[in-house]
Write a structure and sequence with these properties.
Length: 238
């Protein structure tokens, strides 16, 4: 699953890469059980799902100047027809020419922010999330060992801004608020994280926040400091 980049730049990133390469997602009492017949993220990338209903996002982790683990995020262009102005992870819909979810995530990241795939060491793919409208979103985790080698080139048609945030933030109760929602009788929590970067304020919420809570839990090997109460449709059988 690794890309061409095999060097991880620091001992911490190398340890993290080794940890994630062998990671296997297993349900526990704190998570919603998988539906009967649902496959894990390690089961062949579920290639049978239609590309028009499948997308992949790249959770690109790097080491900040203070030694903290950080993740790259974007703010979608205000001119887009859907989710305009929202904070998102680099990624998008799968194309028929994409070999797998990893290729989708890397291709989209290159198109949106100019991230060269050779700089990213892809270490694992998590279980997909499913949206209310039936879109399957696959989280692809990659490590960027040489942050200085990445010179962003934003596609202004799609991306208004790019910033990064500390990954551990998504396990903390600070700068977080929640709203209770209901879907087909199931009550769940929608999480909002407020973050300021370079004098600009961003709100990270909904599916993006949910994916980052999951990734942070996997990376730091602990549950969030708040009740997550994920919506059941995220774990629907695909």
């Amino acid at each position: 699953m690794d890309s061409n980049n095999t060097g991880d730049g620091s001992g911490r990133l190398e340890t993290l890469a080794q940890q994630l390469r062998v990671y296997e997602e297993k349900p526990d009492e704190n998570e919603i059980p998988r539906s009967e017949g649902e496959t894990t993220s390690q089961d062949s990338n579920l290639n049978a799902v239609s590309s028009t209903k499948r997308a992949a996002v790249l959770i690109c982790i790097f080491e900040g100047n203070d030694g903290d683990l950080r993740v790259i995020l974007t703010k979608r262009s205000s001119t887009l027809s859907s989710h305009s102005g929202d904070v998102a992870l680099p990624g998008g819909k799968r194309e028929e020419t994409d070999a797998d979810d990893v290729e989708t995530a890397l291709r989209e990241a290159k198109e949106e922010i100019g991230l060269d795939p050779s700089l990213v060491n892809v270490v694992t793919v998590l279980q997909p999330f499913v949206t209310k409208i039936g879109m399957t979103v696959v989280p692809v985790i990659g490590i960027l060992s040489e942050r200085k080698a990445f010179i962003p080139l934003l596609s202004t048609d799609e991306v208004e801004a790019m910033f990064d945030a500390p990954l551990e933030m998504f396990l903390k109760d600070e700068n977080r608020r929640e709203v209770e929602k209901e879907w087909t009788g199931d009550k769940y929590l929608l999480h909002f994280f407020d973050y300021e970067a370079e004098g600009k304020e961003y709100m990270i919420w909904a599916l993006t926040a949910g994916i980052l809570i999951k990734v942070a839990s996997v990376v730091y090997q602990r549950l969030p400091a708040f009740s997550e109460r994920r919506p059941k449709f995220w774990s629907r059988s695909l």
